[in-house]
Design brief:
By secondary structure, the protein is mostly helical.
Length: 70
């Protein structure tokens, strides 16, 4: 897997929280980062803001996608 943008479904995987919680988290992060409504939040920005290790997060997300792609 190689993509840049983080989606609510990714946050659900990482945190175990609900999809609505994840959407709100992205909205709050966009506000904190002073992003325009049309701009996306990257996985890197998410990790830096919340103090997650980028490599660990991308590994978890890639394992999940491979597991569910079959």
């Amino acid at each position: 897997m190689y993509r840049i943008v983080i989606y609510p479904s990714d946050i659900v995987i990482l945190t175990g929280k609900s999809e609505s919680y994840a959407r709100k988290e992205i909205q709050n992060l966009k506000k904190e980062l002073d992003k325009k409504p049309c701009q996306k939040v990257t996985i890197k920005e998410y990790c830096e803001y919340y103090g997650f290790d980028l490599k660990e997060v991308t590994e978890v997300l890639s394992k999940f996608e491979i597991k569910h792609a079959s």
